[in-house]
Design brief:
This is Phenazine biosynthesis protein. This protein is an alpha+beta fold. Helices cover about 15% and strands about 40% of the residues.
C-alpha cells in the first residue's frame, strides 16, 4: 500500500525586487491530517518557517495560520501568500471571516480591517537612515519605526521593533498596515533591509496590503502523513 503524503510549499512573501528579504511562509496543502492545535504547532515547529498555513478546504479557501510557539496568528503576509499560491479570491479565516484577495503576476494582495493587526506604537524618525540603523529587535515596547524617504510619492522606510518583532524572521505587513491607516494614504514601504510592502486605505477602516510572492520549487516538500 503506497504511503500517503502531504505536500508543503514554501513561499517568500513581501520580497524586494530581487526576491530577497521576504518572510517565509509554509503552506500545507491538505491540513486535514493535522486536525488539532497540538499537531499543527508541532508541524509548524518542524518546518521552521515564521508562519505555516494549513489549508482545510481549498475550494472554499478555508485556512488556518499558525506561528510556532504562539498558536493561531494570521499575519497579513501569510494570507497574501496562501491566496496567491491557491489562486483564490476569498479566504475563510477563523476569527476574521472572509478575507478578499487578488493577485497579478508575482504580486498578491488581501483586504483586511486595520483594527485586526496587533497594536504597535508608531515612532516617526526624521531620517530613513536612522530607521535602517536600528537593531532588528529590542526588549522594549512593540512599535513600528518609520520615516519618509519621499513624502510626496508616499514612500516610507519602516522597521518592526520590540517584543515579538525579532523571532518572526521577516516582514509581516502588520506595522505597515497600521501606518497606512494612521496616515490615511497609500504607501510604498521598504522594510529594512529590503522588503517591499504596498498599502492603500479603503472604506470602513479596511486596508489593502500586498507585495511580491516567490515560490521556490526547491523548497517543495512531501511529508508522510501522521
Amino acid at each position: 500500500m503506497p504511503t500517503l503524503r502531504t505536500r508543503v510549499d514554501v513561499l517568500s512573501v513581501l520580497c524586494g525586487p530581487d526576491r530577497r528579504h521576504g518572510s517565509e511562509v509554509a503552506v500545507v496543502r491538505d491540513g486535514r491530517p493535522y486536525p488539532d492545535p497540538r499537531a499543527r504547532q508541532e508541524l509548524a515547529g518542524r518546518l521552521g518557517c515564521p508562519h505555516t498555513v494549513f489549508v482545510d478546504d481549498p475550494e472554499r479557501g478555508a485556512v488556518e495560520v499558525h506561528r510556532p510557539g504562539r498558536g493561531v496568528e494570521p499575519d497579513p503576509h501569510a494570507l497574501i501568500g496562501a491566496a496567491w499560491l491557491l489562486d483564490l479570491e476569498i479566504l475563510e479565516v477563523p476569527a476574521l471571516g472572509d478575507v478578499f484577495a487578488r493577485h497579478d503576476g508575482e504580486f498578491g494582495w488581501v483586504t483586511v480591517l486595520a483594527g485586526w493587526a496587533p497594536p504597535r506604537v508608531l515612532r516617526r524618525y526624521p531620517d530613513p537612515e536612522q530607521v535602517r540603523a536600528l537593531p532588528a529587535a529590542d526588549a522594549g515596547e512593540r512599535s513600528y519605526a518609520w520615516a519618509w524617504s519621499d513624502e510626496a510619492a508616499g514612500r516610507v522606510v519602516g522597521a518592526e521593533r520590540g517584543s515579538g518583532a525579532g523571532p518572526c524572521g521577516g516582514p509581516t505587513g502588520a506595522g505597515a498596515l497600521l501606518l497606512a491607516h494612521h496616515l490615511q494614504r497609500a504607501l510604498n514601504v521598504t522594510e529594512a533591509p529590503g522588503a517591499q510592502i504596498l498599502c492603500a486605505p479603503g472604506a470602513d477602516g479596511t486596508i489593502e496590503i500586498g507585495g511580491r510572492v516567490f515560490l521556490d520549487p526547491v523548497r517543495q516538500l512531501l511529508l508522510d502523513r501522521p
